[in-house]
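subagent[fold] <- orchestrator: predict structure for attached chain, return tokens only, no commentary.
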Amino acid sequence: MTFARTTLVALFVLFSCDRVSEAIPVFDDTFTSTSSTMSLTLSGAAVLPATAGGPVAFSHVNAFWNVQGSIRIRDNFNVGGVFRDQVEITGTARHLNHPLGDGQTGPGNLLPFMFLIQGIAPGGVALTPPGGAIKSHGTHSDVETLSGARTAGPGGQIVDWTATTKVDHDLAPVPEPATLTLFSLTALGLLRLVRRRDHRD
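subagent[fold] -> orchestrator:
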């Protein structure tokens, strides 16, 4: 009985490990950064059973940036009876420290990003937020830019794909709503003053 149980446990562990290894998606992960910029590009070749799997986490942390996320790659995924390949990426980026000499301290806000890449047309690449986002970072701002692409094959297949997230620490501050309102009221006041002078003349 002991030998039989041990054999069954060993077979179960071996089978489970094999299944886990098959569930790891295959993709390229390229991360570059400076004190004020960062770029993350995830990309892959054709979506096949051998390259599909997940979700699995990815992480890039250094003195200036913290980028966290997960990726799932699905081969012939059924959505409402329509089969297509699908790549899902979700994550966040945060600027941890300001570049030296810009007079600011403390981390910036979280910048979320999401890519949904599918082997269908049109609408094969969906970005959230669309194109990226801008968030204040002290008296400055972090500007996020999202871009994605894929080559679609027949039958909802993805031949290759890429998803890029870039964040730039911009020296130009993001105008606050109160500042914009004050500017608008000032402009209206000046316009009325000019019109009154024209009428008097």
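orchestrator: received. Logging for downstream: The chain is about 20% helix and 50% strand. Residues 177-200 form the longest helix (24 residues).
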